[in-house]
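Why Acyltransferase family protein? Reviewers of the renewal asked for a concrete example.
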Amino acid sequence: MLTEPAPAARKHYHDIDGARSVLMFLSVALHAGTVYAPARPWITANVDRHAFFDWLIFGFHLFITPTFFFVGGFFAVLLLSRRTVGDFMWNRFLRTAVPLVVIALTFNMIESYLRWRDAGGAGSMMDWITSPAFGQLWASGGWQLHLWFLVSLMPMFALAALVQAIVPADAAIRGRVVALIDRSARWIAGSFPFAIALIALGLANTANFTVAMVMPGSYDLIAPGFQSYNKLISEFPFFVIGVMAALSPRFLTALLEWRWWMPMAAAAALFFQPYSEVEHGPLLGQVTLFLNQLAIWTLVLFILQFFHRYFAAGGPRTRWLADCALSMYLFHHCFVYIFGRALTHVAWPVWLEFAVLTVLAAATVIAIHELLVRRYAIIRLLFNGKTDIEEVRKAPGLFAVFAGADNRTKAARPAKAIAPH
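Here is what the prediction returned.
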């Protein structure tokens, strides 16, 4: 994208990185909830479901992936400001494309085979691979499962690199774009202007969806196995605002400024969860679509403000979470299905099953990350796209970070004097 020269000191945005990390962990609860949501009856053969989990998963869907796209745009600009376009594309290939392909060919295939069996398919995995269902899985894009987010990010990264490559470094348009974003930061500073900005963002997203809905073929796959134009364009505004926040520190500051009313607005958005339905009709459907997009922007920006306010300092725990986050995102989906499938044979209360499923899936991924991804270079490269195995081996692991941090803190403090009686 349009970037300026990198600053002398590289700043690490622990708040934004922390938000991404925690939301990737929260994805485990989201997908565990689908096992018990009446709206997702095809997720395992489980019949013990509760309407609360519909509310849970639709609530999580409002803000988890849109925040990911904001973060993706933000860090894309930072990377482009520090690397050549070629280095940036190589980095994105390693960090995004390699894990995407490896997970798609391994864990996603295991899960897809189990789904095929649960849907009535009979036979071994080889029988499934040689069946028409396997070809349909790849042609329809069903192979992506939760990886659709990474699939959508890749063309956005490519677009950012293209703009960076074709716009000269000294082009006047670069300064004009940044100046315009700086000016918009002044427009949204404070509480009331920010509320107006939220409404404007909701209207912009609504217009984006409306145009996409009437475009011929917008719901068809752009290419076999890929995604539709509608799916790509629906998340693009969040990527763009992330780009703008990285280009203008003033704009980022204005976005992350704490507003006293945002927690209440976010709570209302999460509670009511406005979703447009077919039976709403044209007018009510448009109003509900706008309220839906307004709710999404409110939740996304509240999360970013919350992490900026309370988790900007960083630390060993934040660094560990950030390192484990991609493993959690990539691996958890398959384990949620495997464990969720196994739990269909028990007669526990649905709340207990959900808690056990969430903990089991997360704990399994953490064990894989600690015992394999952090220890073996080839596994770290294939499943995380990272080549920093020597550095990460020296970094504290899970138990050192979470069990040892308090002890080290206590040891570093001087002994408290005993007050006289």
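Residues 14-359 form one domain. This is the kind of structural detail the renewal will allow us to pursue systematically.
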